[in-house]
Every structure is written in structure tokens, then in C-alpha cells.
Amino acid sequence: MRPEPGLELEGPIAIPRSNGEPVFGAPWQSRAFGMAIVLHESGAFEWADFRARLIEEIRRAEAEPGNPGKASNPDGSVYYACWLNALSAVLDQGGVVPGYELTGRCEDFRSGARDDVH
Amino acid sequence: MSGDHGHTWHPPSELEARTRALESLLIEKGHATPEAIDAVVRRYETDIGPLLGAGVVARAWVDEEFRARLLDDADGALDSLDLRGFEAEHVKVVECGPKEHHLVVCTLCSCYPWALLGLPPSWYKSPAYRARAVSEPRAVMAEFGLELEDDVSVTVWDSSAEVRYLVLPLRPEGTDGWSQERLAGLVTRDSMIGVARPLEPRTVAA
Asked: Which of B18, B31, B108 sits opposite A84 (nearest CB)?
């Protein structure tokens, strides 16, 4: 069983010291991670482009007032939200998954019209 | 929202919905399969772990020729062990000495020698670590329990897309005659990032 992430946190900027913590805070984070690796390995985008986007997303997230990214965000959701944004952007840019298609499909999952991928 | 047939449907969070939407489109378009994604996650979560890096460090401790090559040309030395990162990044190994310590950070995002250490821990990606490792490395290390003498110099290495750093920690005293395999058991992930020393031999005795 995975321990609940972030329990060792003692303050807003304390750095958790555990050596055995899970690397993903939620299943969607591991899916977002895995998709990027699979698509990169199949040549869908250049890693340098992805990384440049990721840096931009992280910078933007941390500049937002009150964003939990300001704190340690031990469950990793801010980091992987940036990851997902960067991945969506490079896939849109490369024509692999156009942004409008993703927006429409998001709505299907949000509303429950689709529930076929977990 | 409750269904009429006994199931309870929970709306996914925004991030869950977007992740699922992207995955379903990639599957439909033939760019990915759920199995391929599973396999990648498993590979990075469990198969590739700090053990690979620990093996490299332990070998450098027992094999002088390998150590020299690792410090001079880490890419070549790692290639000879078939340890290459998928990003094809360059790796540089920085060696600690009695009066010299090294700490690794990625201030911009979370560049990390994945092929050797697996996925970065959550704290490595945190804004706090990324900022403070540079501005107050000694305080950060102290929070991890690593207190260095004042006369030990600290060099902070900022990873980039081009170069990833791996710390070669000092071999613990009291390990004369230990095998490479036994030594590898002392090398923690944190010691290869530079926020900790390797384990003490007595802590893993017998």
C-alpha cells in the first residue's frame, strides 16, 4: 500500500525527506507521465520542445498568486498539471492531437458522456 | 450524481478528465496503447531505480580505472555498462572529497539522471528545493540531516537539458574489503543527489 503522500510535511516550505515516498501522487499523474514518454519514444515530438514548454508552464504556475505551487505541493499535482499542459501543447503544435479535439473530448469525460479510459 | 442502477458515478477532477481525454484520443489515433503506457510507468516506477546509480557508484569505489573514466567521460563509462538515458542527455559525475561536497538541483524544472536514478522524488521538483538548494545549500542539507564542517566547500550543480549530474559520494570508512555488491547497498538515492551521505556500514551490518 502506498503511504499518503506529504504526511511528513512540517511547514509550507519544508522539504519532505523521505527516501521511499511514491513518485506519483495520483494515478492520472502516472498516465500523463507515461503518455509523454511513449509519444516521445515514437518520435511524436522533440524532448527539447517539451522541456521548454514545461519550464514555461512551471514558471507561469508559480507566478500565480495563491497557487499551491508556491508551497511544496507534495502530491505533485501542480507539477504534473504543468506536465500535462506542456504535453498537450507539443501534441497540438505537431498536429498529433489538435487542441480543439482535446477540448471537446475533455467535456465528454467531465460530463460522463464517456467513461472508457481510467 | 447517482445512477439509477445502483452505481455511483463520481465526476472526474479537471485534471483526471483531461488526462483521460488525451489518452483516449491517442489510443484512437493509434499513437499509444494503454499497455505501452502501463509498461513505461512500470519501468520508471519500479524497474529503473536508484539501484542502477548505486551500482555505478559502488563500482567506482572498487575499480580505480572505472572511477577515472567515469569522472573523465561519464557517457562513455555508462555506455560500457549499457546505461543510457532515453533523452540521450550527457551525464557528468562530480566526486566528493573530504573537504569538498556536491549538491545537484534543477532550478528550471526537474532535470534528473533518470536512467540512473529512476524518477525524481517529489521534493526535487518542489519550488522550495529548487530555489533554496542554490540560495542556502547548507541549510537545505541540514534539513536532510547532513551537517557539513565549515571548512568543507559546497558546489551546487544546476542540471539542464544538456547535462545531468550524479554525485559520487565519499566511500564510507570501515568498508575495506567490501564487495561492490555490498557497497552498493550503502548508496542511497539522496546520497547521489548530494543531500545525504551514504549509509553507515554499521546500519546495514549482517
From this structure: B18
Indicate if B40 and B125 belong to the same structural domain.
Answer: no
Domain containing residue A54: 27-111
* Residue B96: active-site member: no
Q: What whole-number distance in Å separates Cα of residue B171 and Cα of residue B183? A: 9
Q: How far is B65 from chain A (nearest CA, A)?
A: 31
Q: What string of pLDDT tens digits covers the 206 residues of chain B?
A: 433 444 566 677 889 999 999 999 999 999 999 999 988 887 777 666 677 888 899 999 999 999 999 999 999 998 888 776 555 568 999 999 999 999 999 888 778 887 788 778 878 888 889 999 999 999 999 999 999 999 999 999 998 777 889 999 999 999 999 999 889 889 988 999 999 999 999 877 54
User: Do residues B155 and B130 make contact, with C-beta atoms less than 8 angstroms apart?
Assistant: no
CATH number of residue B140's parent domain: 3.90.330.10
Residues B102 and B122 in one domain: yes
In a domain, A89, yes or no: yes
What ipTM is given for this predicted complex? Answer: 0.79
User: Looking at beta carbons, which residues of chain A come within 8 Å of B25?
Assistant: 97, 101-102, 105
Facing residues of B102 across strands? B155
Interface of B with A in 163-182 (CB under 8 A): none
- A6, part of any domain: no
Q: Chain centroid to CA B148: how far? A: 22
Structural domain boundaries enclosing B135 = 48-204
Q: Let me know whether B36 and B137 are in one domain.
A: no
Q: How many domains does chain A have?
A: 1
* 3-class SS of residue B75: helix
Q: How far apart are CA B140 and CA B123, in angstroms?
A: 11
